[in-house]
Amino acid sequence: MRWHASEPSSGPAEAESTVDPDAGRGAHDEQPIRATIVGGHPLRGSYRTPGAKNVVLPMMAACLLTDETCVIQNVPIISDVLVMSDLLRQLGAEVVLNADEHTVTITAADVRSSSPDPDLVQRMRASFQVTGPLLARFGRFDCAAPGGCQLGARPVSVDITGFQGMGATVALAQGVFHAEADALYGRRIYLDYPSHTGTQNLLMAATLADGYTTIVHASREPEVVALVQFLRGMGAEIHGEGTSLIGVQGRSHLYGTVARAIPDRMVGGTMAVAAALTGGDVELLNVRPDHLEPVSVQLREMGVDVIETNRSVRVVAPDTLGATDVQVMPFPGFPTDVQAPMGVLMTQAYGVSTIVERVFDGSMGYMDSLTAMGADVSVQGTRAVVRGPRQLHGRHIDLEHSIRGMTALTLAGLVAEGETVLDGFEFVRRGYEDLAGDLRGLGAVISTGPQAAPVRRAAAAV
Question: Which of 63, 70, 143, 149 is catalytic?
């Protein structure tokens, strides 16, 4: 099917949803929220890990590859999912998001546009993943460069170079990528970096390409494997997922499917760190212990007791934490999304710990706020040295736009002396349905409410 965005189309009306439609406008349009935390309370109990947003979002984008209905289960009802729902509706897909059942049902039979709303695209990086499906099925896209967390340089060159290698013509004008292709062709594509979003986007494009596509130096992340399983359920022929060499035999048509998202290893890892940080004892339910292994290994090295079953991980904090050294790498290395929580944990460990960040070059801004709270931290580029233990002290902090940094400073508040006030807390909804409520359920003293006015007492360039 080939068409042009300029062709008229009546298109379907927006689908009814069981969530508040205004909630889909994302964290940028939400009322500013202030979180207040009183430290000194260990986390205890059990926590059910939600579905992984880093696979749910590309799965939602992949629904554009077929005109049949797809159902995704175990969906976290977070701002990013709401924004992706709005984005797909704007393109013409019918999207029904059921918050009670944590499912999303998508039918892309009447897609009427190849131009994603730039305002929505600017809200999250994952929005760019609609470009592969649009190019593969409809032969074009016009998409602004994506936004999202402020984490240094995060180019989409992997995606663009791959599209060009498959026969597309791509041009960048005034911040918008314009791509066209009469057809995509199977090629051998080498990625100069194993980007998981780039790998996912090229995988989706290759499923409808003419011929066999080989992706060399592909991402091995569990979310890539899970997306492959979803695409295979749609009828795609893919081999080698979980390795650095993935092959895709293109098909002329894909079909609807029903799939369940894997547990979120980033959220699970963060909660594991929070338990160790607060001297707690928390059992994580609905997790994949093998996906959490990079975090579990580091926690054990610090003296934490980590007990695994097939679907759960129990984290029991020791009397004292020992220092450790962390190299942040693509999977199966230590995950970048848990780097900031681990940095907070290091402030409570005896000795000198180090972090070397090898994924995102701008992800250590939260360290400035940790220093303001009393941490002994020095940062040079992508390397941080943390000396501990140090007593942290509550501060009033105006947070910047990074889920990782906000979550880390929330954890810092859990062990800080006195009261920690975090402004801009609404942005954390991009990755967590209710972080404050989850922590409160485990024993934390944390409350949220409207943010009266902007205050900058200790800026966090996270």
Answer: 149
Amino acid at 189: I
Helix axes 265-277, 403-415, angle to 10 degrees: 20
Query: Which sign, positive or negative, has the C-alpha torsion 306, 309, 313, 315?
Result: negative
pLDDT digits (tens, 9 = 90+) for 196-243: 999 999 999 999 999 999 999 999 999 999 999 999 999 999 999 999
What is d(CA 46, CA 64) in angstroms, rounded to the nearest whole number?
A: 37
Domain carrying residue 169: 52-260
Look at the chain and report how many structural domains it folds into.
2
Last residue of a domain, one of 244, 260, 276: 260
Residues 251 and 337 in one domain: no
Looking at the whole model, is its pTM more than 0.85? yes
pLDDT of residue 359: 86
The one-letter amino acid at 382:
T
For residue 446, give the CATH number of its domain.
3.65.10.10
143 catalytically annotated = no
- Interior/surface letters 78-110, b for 16+ CB within 10 angstroms, e for the rest: bbbbbbbbbbbbbbbbbbbbbbeebbbbbbbee
Residue 458 forms part of a structural domain: no
pLDDT tens, 340-372? 999 999 999 999 999 999 887 767 889 999 999
Q: Which H or E element spans position 185?
A: none
Q: Is 366 within 8 Å of 342 (Cβ atoms)?
A: no
